[in-house]
Amino acid sequence: MTAKRRPDRRFLIPAVGIAIVLLLVLLRPVSLARPEAQNPAQDRWVGYYMVLRPTADYELGGNWETYGDTKILNAQRQSDGRYAFTDLEGQALFFDFLPPTDPEDPYSATVAFQSDVAEVVHNTHITDTGTTHSLSGKLYFGPATTPALSQQDYIWTAFQVYQREYGSLYLTRGQSYGSGGFILKQETKYTSTINGSTLQDALSVELRMEEIPRLESCTFFQLDENGTLLDQTTLTEAEALALTDGSYQLPLAEGTDCILIRQDEERDGQTYTTLTPQPDGSFTGDLWFLDERGIGVQVMIQTISE
Fold it and tell me: What is the rounded distance in angstroms from the CA atom of residue 172 to the CA atom of residue 44?
């Protein structure tokens, strides 16, 4: 299984990234301060906010306002630190440039990101001429449960997320896409002059959209080294979506050499995958179910000793 756990919190640059920044402080005394944004053209593009909706639904909720010549929807920071856009439910993949925790130390500034997708990778590359941040991930989706509608009756809209100089976020309307998988990628560059030196910074965000079938159930066949069936367990769609932490605990039968997983798909029949043991004898893997809207929900498979 290749899918990784979908993060549901905001993450900061790892400690090694901070160490690199501190090293650069010793090499060149510069400030990370950014020019103050005075209009939308000076705000920083930071990523995507994907919204899935019926093609016949042209109305967008929320308190949209005019900002310069652009219609925008401001983000609201929640108690858990995440951002939300009023009446516009979607999946996020965007940066959040945080201000310095110490006003006297610009190098205490950090870069976070908000993600509702899988297989997220965040890299930071720092040189004497500037810093490049890159963010990538994958969003799984498929048919909704609405009987009267098919996947062709839904569209994705890639809203563009921007951040003002003082930190607040907002989004603007973006391009819409039909069914099937596709890839979104954008890179922006910006310059600043500090202590007489011009720095060239950049950030890029890549989002891969992958369509998957709706699973009705998954059956786990535990086999010994001779292929003899030791135990059989079925996880239904309803049971998978009811898991509060996204983890499914599978009791491990003694002598299990491998676990064969049969995925019963709603429309496309059955597919099979195999789990092999970890060095400690346990089995782990990921499965993807779809919620009623057709958004992928990750389920982590973990075996436990009986």
Answer: 12
